[in-house]
Amino acid sequence: MAASREEIIAGLAEIVNEIAGIPNDEVTEEKSFTDDLDVDSLSMVEVVVAAEERFGVKIPDDDVKGLKTVGDAVDYIAAHQS
Amino acid sequence: MNATNRAVVVTGVGATTPLGGDSATTWEAMLAGESGARSLTQEWAAELPVTFAATAAVEPTEILPRPQARKLDRSAQFGLIAAREAWADAGFQGRAGEDAPVDPDRLGVVLASGIGGVTTLMDQYDVLKEKGARKVSPHTVPMLMPNSPSANVSLDVGARAGSHTPVSACASGAEAVGYAVEMIRTGRADIVLAGGTEACVHPLPIAAFANMMAMSKNNDSPATASRPFDTDRNGFVLGEGAGLVVLESADHAARRGARVYCEILGQGLSADAHHIAQPEPTGRGIAVAMRHLLENTDLKPEQLAHVNAHATSTPQGDLAELKALREVFGDNLDQMAISATKSMTGHLLGGAGGVATVATALALHHRTAPPTINVDHLDPEVDADIVIGKPRELPSGTIAALSDSFGFGGHNVVLAMRTV
After folding, report:
1. B83 vs chain A: nearest CA distance in angstroms?
2. Cβ <8 Å between B139 and A21
3. Which of B303, B306, B304, B311 is nearest to B369 (CA)?
4. pLDDT tens-digit readout, B223-268
5. A13-61 confidence digits (pLDDT tens)
6. CATH code at B48?
7. Which residue from A9, A47, A50, A43 is spatially nearest to B142, judged by alpha carbons?
8. Domain that residue B333 falls in
9. Domains of chain A and CATH, by start
10. What is the H or E stretch that residue B223 is in?
């Protein structure tokens, strides 16, 4: 069953909190992973792998570059989850 | 400006060791003659030929925030904690050029490890086998590379003069300190954070060292297993942790009114060219390093009052070191109070030279030689004045000390320090 937009944001917040220590409620759609959430390019790979497992999507490396904000990731996951 | 041969002083110390989570606690435990060795409680330990080690007194993950700790190998965690202590002890906070009034282009880091991020390597290999390639952490390489501790300290304090990682097994930490002295003497830097770190309390290194017959197997009594110069010594006790000093040109330290622990005169270096793991039994190679030290520095042998011996509690190694001291320093050896602090800390491998440098600086600063514990029956072949059981006051006036470190591969590093 596909996750709702709110569920995807909540899931990403848990992942970002685990990896970068950012409080869950600060992980909102407009936030940039790199500039606002302490997720550098290496940690972004961890976020992607955790999101793939959690939401049942595949996010190829070439597509990761397009995920600048939390909203970008939510859009991507919402569109690609099975 | 002729920047060569500038005097170098120690203006900060930091350590996290089996005896304590900082240098002060470590030093107090040394003076009290405590052992940091303990039985391992992990399940895997029960299957090993050696079931104890001198593990860190304070877990690094209790100090570092989790998001930072999870991107650092345990060796880098120890190195960062000890580096921050040394940096603060020297009177600095934060990054050079920002919070700390230090020129970042004149600040260096030389932090060594003998083995590197072996626990990261093994853990991620387990991930690969059990969970597949996609789950291998993207931080694996930056965590396991041996220069990772040095690089992370460089990032933390903003050091841009250079970040280096000499690798020479158990001499690595001392080689780092010697390299840092040269960086300042030759004018590349004004301040260098230098030392060693190690974290390899893991079944693979323990099994490997044990199979080399290099480790004590006194599983029933960890606290008395490391017994340098005792007749019953039977190998080293694996330790973990880090020790770093802040080295600074004497001019720079004087300009900012820094507290100075001691002067560091420099290093003597050599290689045994004898065996990949066995010490050269006559001490010939070590003597070459000690003579190099005399040529390379203005150390006056008659001022030598203390030696922090390498002395890891192996049958051959402990005696070879004393033979070299006797050969090079002759009767002056009789005035040297010799301490084997590995009797208490265990052997931190690449971290050992860093911790020994901290201990030697504090010994000169406090004019107190720490004890050698567990010498119940002094080996009759010991022809030197070992500080046994209790600390000993060192003489007044200008005195000097050596800190010896030798590593598998035949690497010999001898550092000399002097009161100011």
Report:
1. 23
2. no
3. B306
4. 999 999 999 999 999 999 999 999 999 999 999 999 999 999 999 9
5. 999 999 999 999 999 999 999 999 999 999 999 999 999 999 999 999 9
6. 3.40.47.10
7. A43
8. 266-418
9. 5-80 (1.10.1200.10)
10. none
B59 shares its domain with B204: yes
B388 belongs to a structural domain: yes
Given B203, B223, B255, the domain boundary residue is B255
pLDDT tops 80 at residue B1:
no
Please give the residue of chain B at the shortest CA–CA distance from A17.
B67
Catalytic residue status for B170: yes
Q: Do B138 and A43 touch (CB under 8 A)?
A: yes
Instruction: Give the Cα separation of B316 and B188 in Å (integer).
Output: 39
pLDDT of residue B9 exceeding 90, the answer is yes
User: Which tokens hold the place of B162?
Assistant: 């250079």
Residues B150, B299 share a domain: no
Q: What is the dihedral of CA B180, B182, B184, B187, to 10 degrees?
A: -140
Check whether A65 has a pLDDT greater than 60. Answer: yes
Residue B313: which pLDDT band, with cuts at 50, 70 and 90? very high
**How much is the pLDDT for B2?**
43
Residue B382 has pLDDT above 90, yes or no: yes
Q: Which of B139, B141, B143 to mutate to test the interface with A (most CBs of A within 10 A)?
A: B139
Q: Which residue of chain B is at minimal alpha-carbon distance from A53?
A: B135
* B285 and B251, same domain (yes or no): no
User: Does residue B119 fall inside a structural domain?
Assistant: yes
pLDDT value of residue B5: 76
The answer to whether the beta carbons of residues B182 and B413 sit under 8 Å apart is no
Task: Using a CB–CB cutoff of 8 Å, tell me whether B397 touches chain A.
Answer: no
Q: Distance (Å, rounded) from C-alpha B296 to C-alpha B290?
A: 10
Q: Characterize the bridge pairing of strands B107-112 and B162-164.
A: parallel
Partnered with residue B338 across adjacent β-strands are B307, B386
Quick check: A45 and B65 CB within 8 A? no
Residues on chain A touching B66 (C-beta within 8 angstroms): 21
Q: Is the Cβ pair B67, A45 closer than 8 Å? A: no
Query: Mean pLDDT over residues B373-387, rounded?
Result: 98
Residue-wise pLDDT for B95-105, tens only, equals 999 999 999 99
Q: Examine the domain organization and report whether B96 and B183 are in the same domain.
A: yes
- Kindly determine whether residue A19 and residue B138, on different chains, have CB atoms separated by under 8 Å: no
Task: Assess B66–A contact: CB distance below 8 Å, yes or no.
Answer: yes
Give CA–CA dist B150/B156, Å, rounded: 10
ipTM of the predicted structure? 0.91
Nearest by CB: A49 against B70, B134, B142: B134
